[in-house]
Amino acid sequence: MCRGTPAFFNSHYMRKKIYKWHRVLSLVIALPVSLWAISGFMHPVMTNIRPSIATQFLAAPGIDPAQLNISLKVCLQQHHIDSFSNMHIVQMGGQQFYQVALDDEHLDIRYFSTRDGKLLKGGDQLYARFLAKTFLEGNTGKDRAEQQPVFTASMAMPVHDCCMIATMNVMNSHGAKIAGVEQITHFDDEYKYINRLLPAYKVSFDRGDGIRIYVETFSGRFGYAVDNKRSAFDTFFGICHTWQWMDALGDTKYYFMIALTSAAFLTTVLGLYIFFTTKTKRSDKPVMKARRNHRYTSLIASLFTLMFTFSGGFHALEKVLPQDALHSYIPQKFSGEDADIDFAEIDSLAGSRKIQKISLCRMNGKTYRQVYPKMNMSKADGRTDLMKSMSAPQQEVLYISSGDYRILNDGDRQYAVWLASGFSRQAPSGIVPVTTFTDEYGFVNKRLPVWKVSYATNDNERYYIETSTGVLSTRVRDKDLAEGYSFAFLHKHHFMDWAGKMARDISTMFGAAMQVAMVCIGLLLYFRYVRRRSL
Fold first, then answer.
1. pLDDT category of residue 383 using cuts at 50, 70 and 90
2. How far apart are the first and last CA of the chain?
3. CA–CA distance from 463 to each of 20, 198, 326, 418 (Å)?
């Protein structure tokens, strides 16, 4: 180099500076990277030690016409109910009830006997018990829907009191005893936002593992199962990986994460520069051996470090960017006239198929009965464990108009388009059914089957609509894909999906373990460097 050239441009000078920056940044990120890596290593273990439950699918026996002794319209009139949000017919404890949601949030759900219209006291909690017990222990064996209580002379109750019979059957059913039932109206440290379903009930069982089952009563849906072991893992993951202890700081937590992941990314780049521009002297000295180990361990680990830190930082950045406020449902109210349902006519339209579920919907100013014929159980089996199957069958649904009782052709598709148009205020360019979780519509969204309604405007936005509940599951735009694919492929290693979940888990755990090894060897090398300097 020519005399008089500034020292900054001297390659030896620059290399010393890079060494220093690499060392300082490595010390700054050592602890957070270790916490992320150790908890990331444990995450696949967590997903594989979930509490064992019998099913995630409620195999309802179907509507029993013999128990429909009073119409819903008359029942509502008896209880002075002028309007409601929606209704179903459900079975528990061998009895059948009108399940009526009075509000759009489904916080006030009431149950009336289809035999005599009597109100079932505490019906929503009772149904939560029934659902949780069914999900935990299944529908096999002694079917709870068929059980009848044993009455004795000391029981001062009429045998025909279906509300009391259902209560006794559910409360005294065989199997694990229930320790408590609690309504959940907001997400918390145990029942996190990732579970999506609200409001829900937390049903705790009196068992050694302390298992808790979360259920959504109005859809009869399984939400989440956690026992003491899974709870301990979740707490560990929340502390070490998502840093829940910083939640009180709001977006500041994510800015802090972005800074640390950026520092880790830069440290890796500097380390790679050092690796490809220097050579370690061959020597049997311990410090030289440590340097060689660190060099080659870091080279292998660096690819995973770049993947984890880039996708993790991108994911944190997405949390602080402005988000459009979206309504998840379109409020609907029905009157007593809408509740005038001719079940005999509906049965005739369904043919020989038993009706499993019925609800109401309104589109284009007209009310329809959503009628679900009973599903073939071989098709329902795929929903026993949604995390494993990652799919759910498309169930047939009839849209029968009120008044003239005509079947709306392609009604479910039309309803999906109507709902999506209510959210987007535009005309769609395409619509397809979705029965499997994909890279774009992942397991995190929880709801299947849904309709994907696409638009050619607003960054090619796509709305995923669950017509059975009238809920917008999620909206995706082209600009959302970069972060979604980054997190799925680089952070959760979905690029290994072709080899199956086990291979993906092994890849994730190997990458996380390499981060820990790299940090440990690097710290060992640093402390030897400090000791040598102090001599």
1. low
2. 35
3. 50, 20, 11, 12
pLDDT in tens, 447-467: 999 999 999 988 899 999 999
Token digits of residue 300:
């292998």
- CB–CB of 143/175 below 8 Å? no
Torsion sign over Cα 438, 439, 440, 446: positive
> Cα dihedral sign for 278, 282, 285, 290?
positive
Residue among 468, 470, 342 nearest 406 (CA)? 342
Instruction: Extract the tokens encoding 128.
Output: 């939560």
Query: Which residue type occupies 80?
Result: H
Return d(Cα 472, Cα 462) in angstroms, integer. Answer: 11
- What pairs with residue 213 in β-bridges? 203, 225
> How does 268-294 read in b/e, with b if 16+ C-beta sit within 10 Å?
bebbbeebeeeeeeeeeeeeeebbebb
Residue 392 dihedral angles phi and psi, to the nearest 5°: -145, 145
Evaluate if residue 149 carries a pLDDT over 60. no
Cα maximum dimension of the chain: 111
CA-atom Rg of the chain in angstroms: 29
Helix and strand element counts for the chain (H, E): 13, 16
d(Cα 342, Cα 350) in Å, to the nearest integer? 13
Query: Phi, psi at residue 457, to the nearest 5°?
Result: -115, 175
Evaluate whether 433 touches 449 at the Cβ level (below 8 Å).
yes
DSSP assignment of 18-36 equals HHHHHHHHHHHHHHHHHHH
Residue of 408, 8, 473 whose CA lies nearest to 221: 473
pLDDT at 195 over 80: yes
Q: Cα separation of 16 and 76, whole Å?
A: 82
Over residues 45-55, the pLDDT tens digits come to: 887 788 889 98
For residue 89, give the DSSP letter. Answer: E
Do the Cβ atoms of 473 and 450 come closer than 8 Å? Answer: yes
- 331 upstream amide cis, omega within 30 of 0: no
Q: Which residues contact 513 (CB under 8 A, 6 or more apart)?
A: 37, 41
Please return the burial class of 427, using the count of CB atoms within 10 Å of its CB with bins 0-12, 13-18 and 19+: exposed
Report the alpha-carbon distance of residue 173 to residue 131 in Å, rounded: 12
- Count the Cβ atoms, other than its own, within 10 Å of residue 247: 11
3-state helix, strand, coil in the chain (%, to 5): 45, 20, 35
